[in-house]
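Quick one before lunch.
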Amino acid sequence: MANPTGWKPSMEKAAAAPAEAPEVGAGGATRGLAYEEPLLFERGSAGERMGVSLPPVQAGADLASDLPSELLRGPIAELPALFELEVVRHFTRLSAWNYGIDTGFYPLGSCTMKYNPKSSEALARLPGFANAHPLLPEELAQGSLELMWKLERALSEISGFAATTLTPAAGAQGELCGVMMIRAYHLSRGNARRKVLIPDTAHGTNPATSALNGYEVVQLASGPDGRLHPEAVRAAMDEDVAAIMITNPNTLGIFESHIAEIAEIVHAKGGLVYGDGANLNALLGVARPGDMGFDVMQFNLHKTFATPHGGGGPGSGPVAVTEALAPFLPLPVVAREGERFRLVQSERERPQSIGKLREFHGNFGMFVRAYALIREYGPEGLRATGQLAVLNANYVRAKLKDVYHLPFETDSLHEVVFTDKALKPSGVTTMDVAKRLIDHGFHPPTVYFPLVVPGALMIEPTETESKETIDRFVTAMRDVADQVKTDPEGVKAAPEKPVRARLDETRAARKPVLRWRPGMKVD
Amino acid sequence: MANPTGWKPSMEKAAAAPAEAPEVGAGGATRGLAYEEPLLFERGSAGERMGVSLPPVQAGADLASDLPSELLRGPIAELPALFELEVVRHFTRLSAWNYGIDTGFYPLGSCTMKYNPKSSEALARLPGFANAHPLLPEELAQGSLELMWKLERALSEISGFAATTLTPAAGAQGELCGVMMIRAYHLSRGNARRKVLIPDTAHGTNPATSALNGYEVVQLASGPDGRLHPEAVRAAMDEDVAAIMITNPNTLGIFESHIAEIAEIVHAKGGLVYGDGANLNALLGVARPGDMGFDVMQFNLHKTFATPHGGGGPGSGPVAVTEALAPFLPLPVVAREGERFRLVQSERERPQSIGKLREFHGNFGMFVRAYALIREYGPEGLRATGQLAVLNANYVRAKLKDVYHLPFETDSLHEVVFTDKALKPSGVTTMDVAKRLIDHGFHPPTVYFPLVVPGALMIEPTETESKETIDRFVTAMRDVADQVKTDPEGVKAAPEKPVRARLDETRAARKPVLRWRPGMKVD
Amino acid sequence: MRYHPHTPDEIRDMLAAAGATSLDDLFRSIPDALKLKRPLDVAPALDEISLFAELRRIAARNATEHPPFVGAGAYPHHVPPVVDQLLLRGEFFTAYTPYQPEVAQGTLQALFEWQTFVCLLTGMDVANASMYDGASSTAEAALMATRATGRSKVVVSAAVHPEYRRVLRTYLAAMRDEVVVVPYGADGRTDLTALEREVDGRTAAVIIGYPNFFGVVDALPEAARIAKKAGALSIAVTSEAVALGLLKGPGELGADVATGTFQSFGNGLQYGGPAPGFFAARESILRQMPGRLCGATRDKHGRRGFVLTLSTREQHIRREKATSNICTNAGLCALASTIHLALLGRNGLAHLARLNHARGRELRAAMERAGFGLRFSGPTFNEMAFEVGDAEAVVSRLAQRGIAAGAPLARWYPDDPRMKGALLCVATELHTPELIELFARSVRG
Amino acid sequence: MRYHPHTPDEIRDMLAAAGATSLDDLFRSIPDALKLKRPLDVAPALDEISLFAELRRIAARNATEHPPFVGAGAYPHHVPPVVDQLLLRGEFFTAYTPYQPEVAQGTLQALFEWQTFVCLLTGMDVANASMYDGASSTAEAALMATRATGRSKVVVSAAVHPEYRRVLRTYLAAMRDEVVVVPYGADGRTDLTALEREVDGRTAAVIIGYPNFFGVVDALPEAARIAKKAGALSIAVTSEAVALGLLKGPGELGADVATGTFQSFGNGLQYGGPAPGFFAARESILRQMPGRLCGATRDKHGRRGFVLTLSTREQHIRREKATSNICTNAGLCALASTIHLALLGRNGLAHLARLNHARGRELRAAMERAGFGLRFSGPTFNEMAFEVGDAEAVVSRLAQRGIAAGAPLARWYPDDPRMKGALLCVATELHTPELIELFARSVRG
Ligand SMILES: Cc1ncc(COP(=O)(O)O)c(C=O)c1O
Ligand SMILES: Cc1ncc(COP(=O)(O)O)c(C=O)c1O
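Model of the pyridoxal-5'-phosphate complex:
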């Protein structure tokens, strides 16, 4: 095999070096065998090799006869020719370079990285669900429709709203859907309005979503306690404001306790209150956005309801609304008629609908998993989820606040944000701490977000982590803080254990290499 | 977490050490993150934690009432109390300490470590197969019976025998079954006879099996060409010899070309010829033991027909026989009556049967996989399997015979045996070479077997390995041979990369610690 | 609770450490008036055995015994079991967006391989790390075109998937961008004269299906030429990506952007989602692209590695100035496609595409034998519209036998009299010749 | 061929390197007369899609909709999906016997955990790394007893699983060891007076079921005492290991050896195999034990690790003097049990056992309501024999409804008139109260 990954074979040299047991981190991290693996395109043979077993093509299926020859292509030369075992080894080895929830603690703030139940995978693969075509005649798809209808009802109850659409593909599309409905609502009353108010703690998708809807974003400063204050809203609120987008608890893990008053202020001027539900995990069974003055809210089903999204997705972003906004829900809508269910697909039946957001009905595969989780938890389980998520975060906070700077003394709910302020003298940054945690055996927290907190370290343990695990994480965080004092360079040199040391992001952006090409070089 | 695995946390020290990229072996082996993991029993909480979700026990199910109280036990104190994610992480991390076929090349001679198709796993899990109870009324188990009947037919054809039993659990039980039938055959003619002839190249299960049947083992020396010679057999053969057990090709990967003459000699004195079919992979579609004078032979289905046996099993050891031995086949036997199949269970129908070897009908789960493979291969695929297995072994042989000592110049079939003779001066042994291969990224070959070859290195690539893979393995073997010259200590220090360096086997045997106990110590 | 590790003792200790008197006390920052005073009104908890029984009951209410003869944007294909067994590996399955590249090289290299597969099949220079689906990907392409060209008119062929067009309208509504639809001809291809007429100096993008909604291989080269002449971007939309194993990539035919879905590779039907939307374009448009991008770089020892890059386009940095609001994408679905494409490779993809085309021809022949002609005369891949008289009646009749017959085109084209009897059907490697014959006969009834 | 990587060119090059002129030439060491001159007469090759169709057809000929009410050595239990998803991890699934411990620590630690689970449940000191199944494990125990005691008589209770006894006879036949069967009483327990009479100075082992074949908790402590008095080893056989979550381990009750299967933990029915046989014993017998043993040790850096040990007992070293000929065992099945037991743990196992016992009582109550009494008066766990009149008739009648009713005991005890109407039935966590009620009513008909 050539040497595309740039490692230098050097067996003799290294072998001669004195053998010693590698360091072991608080999370048990040590070193073991790993394997360099070239790109698929750098593998395989020039020949007829193939990793699938397909039926033969009937002889005499002469293509030219019915397809324009100028549009035909032969086999794509740059594609590799691999056999099944080669592919199995490739992905088995690649996977070992990854860290997932199944590997260990993954306190990535704002992402609610909780355990994804394996049962759900078996359920989502039941042939009736997995093989259902989205355009099945309704009488052949009653199972899908029943499940969607029941999930909609459950989500409406959990969030305290009148109705829910399951369609959106992820949180951001849920936001898009919600703001579109807000816009449609205002339009229906004559004027779409121009502005959307967004606190400075908000996730980037909030302003981006507003912009996509043609709204001008007015950023509101949070108070010294990390909360949005009524005054700030009152000052910015006017008849030209379509809505305010609030995340509650916000991205600092702090409950926006003035939410009711803020909602009043906004409603008084005819505006609507959008709830970014990405942090709903904190409130499950304890409080409901629909009871706080929110008019519309998206769920991040893949976070709060534990649907797998390995590598960055898929998500699912259902949107719940009040009665007033229900007419604007996107299509399709599942309607129940006795024991039968049907899909309302046409604007003729829902003239005020904002229309369609997906080619079909949403990420059904995720609906199955989320519904299964809700059914296994029941009311008590859901409430315990919120309570234990908040307990874990507060425990971490209590155990670390003496060594890491806590920018806000305000109560935390499901996550806690620290900063690298205390480490500054040593020159060690949040990024260094994050990388050093890898050598201890933990996935780093979210870093440098929210933007209002310089050097933020955002820790969200979730309810599926045990006290033992959190105690080990706390030990690691404290070890790193100690090491910053004794050996800052050691911290900056991290990580040492993974198959790759710190990667050069500047180089990647300066000369983008975004795909393989024959003879590809990275320099 | 305590520190049961004996590693020394030492983050500062090691982190301060100069960072450098680790060596990379010819098989791509490098180092990456791994995780120390305590025993299950060293984990978990003292409380009510549980990793399963079970229905409640109806209240008022008062045990004492109908079970003798002196026999009742409470929860077993030493068992751990874990939750699902904890268990998932435990086994995910443990698995990463392993090397399997899916990880890389696994040339473990005599074990035929070929790719285990993933399709077979999906097929074996079809509810109709997976959930079938062995005592299902026959009319409800026609699927299982049809599959067994068809597999029996296919195996009989592939091996060239009249009939096959699927019952035995593995190769060794297949041998047991075969020798029992031989014994029953002789008994039926008045005398069980006393001895079994076994060449010195035989696998340990052959003599062990004979002994289990009360036979005295007479070992025959192979000739200088690694073959058993007719003279040796003629000299040892008499009316007291029940059978000769021959592995063909033998464990040197050499075809016993005198097999026909040897069979004649044995048959002439009323003896039978047993074939150890563990190496059948070499002959698939090319030659058939049934055509060579063998009277009975076991298959190692889990090897030749690629059924998974992770960690040491399960196996499956069907036995094929000639017409003459068919009456002695163990029970059950699958009988076909038109489109219906039934199990012959009773000695009344098969008075000469040796009886039962398993509580039920054999390892059915393995039958599904083996049958699927045979169906996907068809005649051409089976023949190609034998041919390519032999091609790979001969290619390895050609590429290494100048650096490793080849004890026999005789043609090889599916595997090749080298020795460490050429390395002796340096003090490096076969075991050292094996361990050093690990650092290169390969599973070591079988070592020190067969016993007739001092320091044997037994390499069986199988047909599912590509030329590229074998070329990398050859490079590794040659690198090691070179290193032996320049740096023998480096080779003896191997392996360096796995989570564990060389383990102390003497210590393990001197003071056996074979299970966890509270406060367990290893010293 | 198998997912909740906390024992009563641990809860007590942790509360003490956190200085709280009870679990409720942790929520003191929530005004009492805003708290829920009752248990949620959702069904009671189920143990795993009952859960499986209940979901099996629900799943059994779907009829999925036979492969559907309907495609129309979602295609029934065989997914080799090896794909799912690799996909389920926890290290892939339970990792999120690779924000920390040193512990996400597996995800990142696989994304880099995905981006390469998308480029090779579409004939484009660059591709992103995936989109929600084909429709939103196409809508984002249109938005990108309006940004890139500073123009606001989007011209779309009526032969582009109608649901894609609905999503396009939803996305563009807010920007008050103008969507103009041009008709198709009797061959099922876009009417080029009409297109030529509509595309002008105000046109930002021309959108055309390839193959289009009718399964017809539309006039992409011509459409691209018309767009280029007017300084507009041409966007080719593909929902049956298997076709790209037989047909040239949109990039080779002059398209500037290629969008659609790779659902056909490694992703089952799942009642319509999730599946990986793809987005590919020419190098020149790179910095206008939505979504995540994975790029190659080196680590401090000089070893090649991968990272997310050019993120200054994205919402988490650029906020309201971002090229899109997309954050979570369809990573796992993209991985499934990547694994399936790796298995197919050069030879398998070509074979699969030929096979699908051949099955399409068998369907056509069988339907003709049964007395049903083609609705459109244009060239097709594995999907085509037949003239069956009363399409809705056929669908209900076959539904009674548990067969999904096809998509009655009149549902989307109520005003086009030609569509009254048009039934859109597909045949793939899953539809054996016997099954196809049976189907054609049942359509006749 | 997706499993054969070789291209024609590679084959050519490799043949050249090997100095062979053709693939056939590689087999020149096989005399021509011994070669097969024709293609094998097996069915032609199938592509994956056709393969799945064919095996689905075959699987569909089995009726497995309802959980069977028959146990008799194989028990229907719920296996949480997480077990299988972990088991399928390639590093476990495709590794073999851990001959090279440095690259097999995963397998080895899991085996060490398995051995510990077996010891904890059986109350024994040591356990091996698994056996083929319960029957062969029991037979090997008897052989071990004859070796250890130098005696040749094996006394076995007629209430031990009849198929186990058949296997025992097969295994002992060659050694001319003598097997004596002692009867059971009206309570379904071993007749202790008869046992006392049979066990003498020539007796190597006493074998008794726990619970026995009738589901009855047999008189193990008494039997063990009788054996000990005569200097024989007592062997307790358990096929429904869930019972050990509620009943004391055989070791606690005086047994010297415990054998049986852990199929109930993590291993499905699979028409009877594979499943992990277990073998546990007192420390004193350690060196007489068959099978592989995993032990703890340290590596050169002092870190704890695991290896296969005491292999001087085994065939690959001792050859004809080995304690057994077993080589490949049931490793993967033992891993499945280990994972399931880890999930169950202290609390889950106790709960599962109580639940099974409770379901057994519900079955008994339902059958009594339906008019069917117990055949035996002895205490039972989750399985018991009912008096149903014509047992075979009941079985065929319920088979027509796709239900596996139970095991008619007369099949194994044709000469015992008491067994004529005896039907052995089981109820586990899979048999809901509703299902049990329905079953009892259908038995009545
Ligand atoms: C607070 C917040 N809002 C919105 C989003 C966007 O959700 P998604 O990534 O599902 O589009 C996220 C996810 O990162 C988030 O953390
Ligand atoms: C030559 C030979 N014979 C017999 C056996 C025994 O087969 P099994 O391990 O399936 O019992 C083996 C397996 O190691 C073998 O290699």
